[in-house]
Input
Amino acid sequence: MESDQDSKIRAEARRGRGAVSNASGRFEPYQRVAIDDGWDQEVPRALKTHVAIENPRSVITHNQSPDIGFDRSINPYRGCEHGCIYCFARPTHAFLGYSPGLDFETQLIARPNAPRRLEQELSRPRYQVAPIAIGTNTDPYQPIEAQYRVMRGVIEVLSDFRHPVTIVTKGTLIERDLDLLADMAKAGLAHVGISVTTLDAGLSRRMEPRVPSPVRRLRLIERLAGAGIPVRVMVAPVVPGLTDHELEAILSAANDAGARAASYILLRLPGEVSGLFQDWLAEHAPDRATRVMGRMREMRGGEDYDAAFGTRMVGQGTFSALLRHRFAIARTRLGLSRDLPALRRDLFAVPPRAGDQLSLF
Output
């Protein structure tokens, strides 16, 4: 049986992290299990972030999902140091031989050649322009971007090609790129979505430990809007029984900060995320755990998750309908749009390279 001291040591080792466990990925042949064999054990050290380098042959990923508003995306990084316990992208780490738990937020992969690969893909004669979405899987402005600057390089390429882009982030590092994004937005080439899960700073720190505070994200919306960049506030995810009561307050605060549009997404618990999230509830919100999971199953047809197109983002049933109704009323009252203005595609052009012959016309 573990002692309280053992639990405290483990908690100290993962301070600043979201997951409370690090079970082996589902594709691994062996499982790691910690046991007390009676011998003295080394006190766990604080988990550090490790970054590996990947050089992909292509960076634009295409999808045909009918319930999302883009058909292509770019992921500058795999894994995310923000450590959001609810992140639906966690199971993707299992494909890399890592755990979707603590590995997802500590064993990261950067793709520094992404800007060069993107330039090659956009230069292909048959390329058909459409907005590229960035930040739909892991956050492109997570802390390691300050060192690796992959996202900065990607934005520079998109700016050079006059290519439309939509960005979703919680990271204030995006402010570094206002010089590029403001010019692109002025030309109708850029939108930004800022995710705000809760206005409760304490809950945010526990649930999304390395994300800027809610107040800081509201200031980020203000800065982006002040630079002329159309901003959508994304109440995502809405956690029933834990954060759903904040829906109207978040929309109102974001509207005051300058957001022009709004959306929300219900908590999604695919694959290993369900177990990880329930472990987090047991440690950080034990008095809410039964209520939260009961609501989730009520909205997911009795299961922890339902991946069906059309309902996976909003759920189903009475509580889901009530949430949609509340959102619609608040959005109308505040004058927030459903969608931001369409991005332009007609400005796209492959920039001339050194040595190219200039056109006479």
